[in-house]
Amino acid sequence: MGEYASSDAAAALARAQELSSMVRKRTAWYVRYQVVYGCAAGLLVLVIGLVKAPFGTAVGIGGWVATITALSVYAARQPVARRGFGRWHGIMIGTWALLYSAVLVLGLLFFRGDASWWVPGAVVVSLPGLIGGYLEARK
What we know:
Blueprint: H1 2-26, H2 29-50, H3 55-76, H4 85-110, H5 115-138
Helix pairs in contact: 2-3, 2-4, 2-5, 4-5
């Protein structure tokens, strides 16, 4: 009987490892999500800051709505999210929101059309998504 229980435990462990490997492979979508999010965030900040109003703002906001819609549909169609996904995603979005708000508010008030503000600002705004994608890929 002890041998039977041992083989059951070994089979259960093998199955758990197989499932863990499958989940890791199936959650790779979130790396792509974060990289697209980061790149879009940076690009759209540049558009808002460097293209004359109202066109820059209209294109930037329209582009952002389209990007978030596409990424939301993409995320909703994914079958698996790893443990801690919600918290990790919330941290990424919260960090992005703080940086985005600071860059946009200060830029629109004091640096309208000034590339020396908007280019570094776009890089900073893209970092939460890009760093998040890098860290997610390493897990």
